[in-house]
Design a protein that fits this description.
Elements (H helix, E strand, L loop, with lengths): L2 H6 L29 H6 L8 E4 L7 E2 L9 E3 L2 E2 L23 H5 E4 L3 H10 L8 E3 L10 H4 L1 H12 L3 E5 L8 H8 L4 E6 L5 H7 L6 H13 L4 E8 L8 H11 L4 E5 L6 H12 L4 H10 L19 H17 L24 H5 L1
Parallel strand pairs: 1-5, 3-6, 6-7, 7-8, 8-9, 9-10
Antiparallel strand pairs: 2-3, 4-5
Helix pairs in contact: 4-6, 6-7, 9-10, 10-13
């Protein structure tokens, strides 16, 4: 689809308005705008693509990483792709490894790990497994809309509670409050922390930038519900989009602290591979007056480029403007009264256990 078409049309309820070419593929599919429904054309909208669920046949469930930019090295992602449709999502290019696009395909073709709970149980039962913190949603959101029906994330948490393996969750969805009962069981053994990602307090911006996420007030309500239930909860101001959302940081931190958040962190906008042109296109469609400001500030923090994959740089950026954001974050956090810096402080592996195998001698004497 041409840049001209992208700049004219949007898709209601979707972050991207096109499927940019896959960097690994030679063929590109381009919709024929001339055949669009006339009513949609007058509204400047493209036909609404439907979400498709695809079975993920992965035979392992715990992923590992050695990045110093991430606060965990083990994670579980029950879904590949994410219907939340956040335009800035750094995980979008992962869909290209399946021959798909980082654009609409990432939001509408969701791979579902139906065997996640059984795979996790098998991993934790291995004698080689050393108890350690596992992050839920290291790449895509484990509480995206389809979770309400499929409950795969809940089944994973049930296994974690059974083994008392410590875990941390990060999400943009109020649906996380559904599992407070399991979180309480985990918290009895210091095995849970929950994080809400809050990018903006503006509902109008959220609905076009993160179209199928919970609105900001619902995320704050989730923080409050979790805190009142005694569950350790914090927030991530992530990503901070310079020139668009950075000015909201103090207000986000204060609102979340008032709701009961105990800690806070932040990440600067990352634009790897196809995410950069998607973000440029989104700015052209929704914020043409701010486009140059946002992109120039991103480049200021990325050695003159839209993205720098260097460890230690990609999450925070470099230069004067990145330093200003960091200082403002620390000052705002202290002013709001946050108590700790880390979402994994206090988590413990001391209560980890392996349930007896049915029919074993141990089971007979319990």
């Amino acid at each position: 689809m041409s840049t001209e078409v992208n700049s004219l049309y949007t898709i209601r309820g979707r972050g991207a308005a096109a499927n940019p070419v896959n960097r690994f593929e030679m063929i590109e599919m381009v919709p024929d705008v001339d055949t669009m429904d006339e009513d949609l054309a007058e509204l400047g909208e493209l036909p609404l693509p439907q979400t498709q669920l695809l079975r993920d046949a992965s035979r392992t469930i715990i992923a590992s990483n050695d990045s110093p930019d991430i606060g965990f090295d083990r994670s579980i992602n029950p879904y590949r792709g994410c219907e939340h449709g956040c335009i800035y999502c750094y995980a979008r290019p992962t869909h290209e490894y399946f021959g798909l696009s980082a654009g609409l395909d990432f939001e509408t073709k969701i791979f579902v790990k139906t065997d996640a709970a059984s795979l996790l149980r098998a991993e934790l039962m291995k004698k080689s497994w050393e108890p350690q913190v596992i992050a839920l949603s290291g790449v895509t959101d484990c509480y995206q809309p389809i979770e309400r029906k499929l409950r795969i994330t809940r089944s994973v948490i049930e296994v974690m509670a059974e083994f008392r393996n410590p875990m941390t969750v990060i999400t943009k969805n109020h649906l996380v409050t559904r599992d407070i009962d399991l979180f309480k069981d985990l918290h009895e053994h210091r095995c849970i922390s929950v994080n809400l990602s809050i990018t903006t307090l503006r509902k109008d911006l959220q609905q076009i930038m993160e179209p199928r996420t919970s609105i900001p007030s619902r995320r704050l309500a989730a923080v409050e519900q979790l805190a009142k239930a005694g569950i350790p909860v914090g927030i991530m101001v992530a990503p901070i989009i310079p020139g668009l959302t950075d000015e909201e940081m103090p207000a986000i931190l204060q609102a979340a602290r008032d709701a009961g958040a105990q800690w806070a962190g932040y990440v600067i906008l990352r634009l790897p591979h196809a995410v950069a042109p998607l973000m440029v296109d989104w700015l052209e469609r929704h914020y043409p007056d701010r486009k140059d400001k946002v992109l120039n500030r991103v480049k200021e923090m990325r050695h003159g480029k839209l993205y720098d994959a260097q460890w230690g740089v990609r999450g925070r950026g470099v230069g004067e403007f990145a330093d200003q954001i960091g200082r403002l974050f620390e000052v705002s956090k202290r002013k709001a009264g946050y108590r700790t810096d880390s979402r994994t402080d206090g988590l413990s592996t001391a209560s980890f256990r392996r349930p007896p195998v049915p029919g074993s001698q141990i089971g007979l004497f319990e």
